Structure formats: C-alpha cells, structure tokens
Amino acid sequence: MYGMIHRAARTMSIEVLGEPGWNALATASGFDESDFLSAQVYPDPRTLALVSAIANETGLSVDGALHAFGRFWINWADKSAYASVMRMNGDTLVEFLSNLDRMHANIQRVMPETRLPSFEVVAATSVRIDVLYRSERTGLESFVAGLMEGLLDRFGDTGTVTHAPAPDGVLFSIMMARV
Ligand code: HEM
Questions:
Q1: What stretches of 44-140 show up as alpha helix (H) in DSSP?
Q2: CB within 10 Å: which end of the chain, N or C, has fewer?
C-alpha cells in the first residue's frame, strides 16, 4: 500500500507509545525512513508487517490493531491535507458512505497505483445501514469496522457495526442506537 498509510500508522503508534517506544519498535522490527515515503507503493505484506509489529508492541491482536487503525484513520484524514475532501463528501453518515467510491476515485487520480475497495449502500433506514464492501484484498474486515465506527463518531451518531460474508463481498451492518 501507499506509504501514506504507513505514515498514518506510525503517527498512531507514536501517540500510543511515545517517540522512544516507536523508535524501539521500529529498530526491533526493521523499519526505517525508507518505509515511510508517502508516494511510494509498498507490497501489502510489508504494510501488514508494520501493523503486526504495532499490534505486538501495544498488546493488541492484529485485528485489534487494524480496528484501532480504522478509527484513527478517520481522525487523521480529517486533519490531513485531505480534510476538505472529507468535508465535502457528505453531511450525513449515509450520504458520506454513498459517496465513498467517488472520493476514492478522485484520490486515485493522484495516487494511480492504489487498489481501492468499493462500498455500496445496499439498504438504509433511520435505524440501520447496510453497506457491501468489496476488495481484492482479504482480512481487512476489522479495519473497515474501525473506519465505520470512526465515521459514526464523526457524525455524532452512536451505533454498532457487525459484518458477515455475502456472495459478492462482505456485508457491513450499522445499527443506529436510538437516542
Ligand atoms: C480523505 C480520506 C481518504 C484517503 C486519502 C484515502 C486513501 C486511501 C489509500 C491511499 C488507500 C490505499 C490503497 C492502496 O495503496 O492500494 C486506501 C485504502 C482503503 N480505504 Fe481509503 N482513503 C480515505 C478515506 C477512507 C474512508 C473514509 C474509508 C471508509 C470506509 C476508507 C476505506 C478504505 C479501505 C477499507 C481501504 C483498504 C483497501 C482495501 O480494502 O482493499 N478510506 N485509502
């Protein structure tokens, strides 16, 4: 994946472990500056190795780290150079989810080597949103769940996120809490 993702993961680790903790992790697991070039594309196993090293050091499972990273990513994106892209992507959670593919497609213009997922809102009511996630990658469901929880927070909503395999991808269901 693009180094931009590695950089965000490093920022999250520094927030959790502090600079010295991060430096120790990086040295022990063989990551240096050459792994954090924003515009460089790294093989997915390298990205996963980074997540695993962070999981190890923070006492989380790999899925736990992916989940935390999903939540973190939403906050990070809101403060990044892409803040305006995030702001313009929708005023409600459903609208935002419905526009995600268009947003990623715009991002792909500047990062042509991305292999981006797709999100299709297949049903939405005031209490439940079903989103079909499709990707060439596998194993990122916890990341997606964390992203969706981050989005719930971002829109001031509360709810729970579950997922189940579907014939054509993975179906995420967001159950909105009645307040
Ligand atoms: C402005 C904000 C965002 C930017 C700049 C961005 C950019 C990216 C980039 C560069 C990748 C890596 C693709 C690759 O290297 O092949 C990626 C992957 C991904 N993005 Fe986004 N993204 C943003 C927001 C979101 C949001 C809000 C979601 C919420 C669902 C999301 C879901 C994902 C997922 C799940 C992946 C993993 C790839 C996969 O499943 O195959 N992204 N994104």
A1: 44-58, 62-79, 83-87, 93-98, 100-110
A2: C
pLDDT tens for each residue of 34-84: 999 999 999 999 999 999 999 999 999 999 999 999 999 999 999 999 999
At residue 166, the pLDDT reads 98
Average pLDDT score over the chain: 97
Residue of 107, 134, 155 to test ligand 1 pocket, by largest number of atoms within 8 Å of CB: 107
Q: Measure 104 CA to ligand 1 centroid, in angstroms.
A: 7
What phi and psi, each to the nearest 5 degrees, are found at residue 124?
-150, 125
CB-defined site of ligand 1, < 6 Å: 1-2, 4-5, 77, 82, 85-86, 100, 104, 107, 111, 114-117, 119, 135, 137, 140, 143-144, 147
Cα atoms in the Cβ-side hemisphere of radius 13 Å centred on 157: 22
Flag residues of the chain having pLDDT under 50. Answer: none
Q: For position 179, what pLDDT does the model report?
A: 64
Diameter of the chain measured on Cα atoms: 49
